[in-house]
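Data deposition worksheet. Section B asks for the primary sequence of the deposited chain exactly as it was used as input, without tags or linkers unless they were present during the calculation. Section C holds the resulting structure in token form. Section D is free text for depositor observations; keep each observation to a single sentence. Incomplete worksheets are returned to the depositor.
Section A, Depositor: J.P.
Section B:
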Amino acid sequence: MSQLLKAANEVSPRTLAVIGKKKDGQFFTNVMEYNQEDDYQTTWSAQKVMDMTCHEFGISLRGLIEGSRILSGITHKPPIAIDRLSGMYFFPTESPLKKTCTWIAHTHVKQVDNIAKRKCRIVFRNGRSIIIEASYATLINQLYRTAQYRYLLNNKMEDLLQSSPFIAEKLYKKEKQFR
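Section C:
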């Protein structure tokens, strides 16, 4: 892991997890990237790292959380979509407004292994893993909720695009299939 940074690099589509920690009354965050040599630690709390990343995409963490709650009906620990196009969907392992909250990138999760009563291993698609202090049921529930949120968000976008002839970006338009 690289040295302790005063500020955080931006969370990206290559980020696997944003791990909030508290030691001696101070908050800090370990950011786990796709390649281990790119991991880093910052003096910022996980909440601030996530909020600053959201700001880079033109929204706040609170705004994404509220939007997720409205669309999905998930009131506790809602997942967020920082950027749909690059697949940046994250779910929290505890209250998302806690400075020690750990955020997991849904796109990269391969499996969850139960280790103990409140301890699980999340294995990512590239083979890296992380131990999380949360129950297996909680983590599986968060995975499923995030999948459901992605589905709802995708359907809402498709419905919007199909019903409007005034979409400027062809990137989102579905091509008609001919038989």
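Section D:
Strands lie at 4-5, 15-23, 26-33, 40-42, 80-83, 88-92, 103-105, 109-116, 119-124, 129-132.
Residues 4-164 form one domain.
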